[in-house]
Amino acid sequence: MSKVRSALTIAGTDPSGGAGIQADLKSFQEREVYGMSVVTSVVAQNTLGVTDIHNLPVSFIEKQLQSVFSDIEPNAVKTGMIATVDMMEVIAEILKKQSVHYVIDPVMVAKSGHNLMEEPSRKTIRDVLIPLASVVTPNVPEAEILVDFTITNTEDAKRAAKVIVEELGAKAAVVKGGHLTGEAIDVLYDKQDYHFFKSERTNTKHTHGTGCTFSAVITAELAKGKSIVEAVAIAKQFITDAIHYTLGIGKGNGPTNHWGYRLKSLPNQGGE
Ligand SMILES: Nc1ncnc2c1ncn2[C@@H]1O[C@H](COP(=O)(O)OP(=O)(O)OP(=O)(O)O)[C@@H](O)[C@H]1O
Ligand SMILES: Cc1ncc(CO)c(N)n1
């Protein structure tokens, strides 16, 4: 048996490389996990925004999933953009039969404001997918939709993480603080305790795909056998460095630097 650890992402694409499947595979590679991907939607987007979305037929998503699971069983799976209820139901049926870690990044709206999840899917992700999850990683607007109250500070984020675990049925939830002000504080609740992951907030517009990268690193670390708390701590350090060592590319909200953590001892590589 091979000792190689593998992770699968089930998500939409970003041809400009900063978010979605592309960001996930880069993150898996940096964390030395063999990366695999099932495409749900092909998205025409870049650092300026989304221009169009092409949803793949559900039967074709199912075929891709069968291709992976019948050959290389991943050690951990993450889902990102899943646009429709039908897609979610097919993915849930397949993941129910697996006993691997499952990380949900409940992608709803891109940073540019474009809807990546159809409205009725919000109920399905809550009722059908979240109960299967090891970790759910909503940003503040996504957590607000999942728990149905407003989040303006870390106390609210704590309450939301607890609801996602105790009422919606995930094993753990991290509510990310990217959309709040002050230090960037992410709150993890894992049924037993709260854990807080803090970093300075970098003053930058280049945060395209931060959520995808963060959840992909959690998935990679779970695939390697790390605990949820350890995996989130590594992901927080990884994304902090990826934001700090900005690449400064793209005409809009640029991507993060997936090899930023390797540059820790070097000066900022960034553009503007
Ligand atoms: N300006 C910043 N400085 C430092 N850390 C940040 C900053 N913005 C976001 N983060 C961190 O990045 C991670 C992702 O959080 P964020 O809330 O931005 O995700 P997101 O909105 O889902 O991202 P996206 O939709 O672009 O994929 C979290 O760990 C958060 O604390
Ligand atoms: C495909 C995809 N997934 C997630 C996001 C959120 O960053 C995005 N912009 N595109």
From TrEMBL:
| Catalytic activity reported | 4-amino-2-methyl-5-(phosphooxymethyl)pyrimidine + ATP = 4-amino-2-methyl-5-(diphosphooxymethyl)pyrimidine + ADP; 4-amino-5-hydroxymethyl-2-methylpyrimidine + ATP = 4-amino-2-methyl-5-(phosphooxymethyl)pyrimidine + ADP + H(+)
User: Broadest EC class?
Assistant: transferase
* Domain of life, per lineage: Bacteria
- EC number(s): the record gives 2.7.1.49, 2.7.4.7
* Cited Pfam families: Phos_pyr_kin
GO molecular function terms attached to this record: ATP binding; hydroxymethylpyrimidine kinase activity; phosphomethylpyrimidine kinase activity
GO annotation terms (biological process): thiamine biosynthetic process
Q: Does the keyword S-adenosyl-L-methionine apply?
A: no
Does Transit peptide appear among the keywords?
no
Q: Note the InterPro entries from the entry.
A: HMP/HMP-P_kinase_dom (IPR004399), PM/HMP-P_kinase-1 (IPR013749), Ribokinase-like (IPR029056)
- Pyridoxamine kinase/Phosphomethylpyrimidine kinase domain spans which residues? 14-257
- Kindly give the Gene3D superfamilies that the UniProt entry links to this protein: 3.40.1190.20
Family listed: Belongs to the ThiD family.
What name does this protein carry? Hydroxymethylpyrimidine/phosphomethylpyrimidine kinase
Organism of provenance: Aquibacillus halophilus
Its taxonomic path starts at: Bacteria, Bacillati, Bacillota, Bacilli, Bacillales
Q: Which gene encodes it?
A: thiD
